[in-house]
Amino acid sequence: MKVSALIAKLQQLPMDADVAYLWDGEPRSDVQCVHLARDGYVVLSDFADFCYSTGARPSSAPTEEEDPYWKTPAC
Fold first, then answer.
1. Is the distance from CB of 34 to CB of 43 less than 8 angstroms?
2. CA of 31: how far to CAs of 6, 17, 21, 38, 64, in Å?
3. Residue 54 in contact with residue 47, Cβ under 8 Å?
4. pLDDT of residue 73
5. Largest Cα–Cα distance of the chain, in whole Å?
6. pTM higher than the cut 0.70
7. Which of 34, 41, 56, 61 has its CA 20 to 30 A from that of 2?
């Protein structure tokens, strides 16, 4: 999905609704952070989610060699 398609879908939803992502069959984590990953994906995460690969991290984050268990910050 492209950002433009995501924005179009979100505009059809209640603006005060909470946003979560589906994990293990249930909406278990609230989306708290959004970043552009080095590999070009827009990544949604909760606070303190582990991110292992360098490509999935924002350019401001350390590489996996520098910190193999980097966590998303409190955005």
1. yes
2. 14, 12, 7, 20, 23
3. no
4. 86
5. 41
6. yes
7. 61
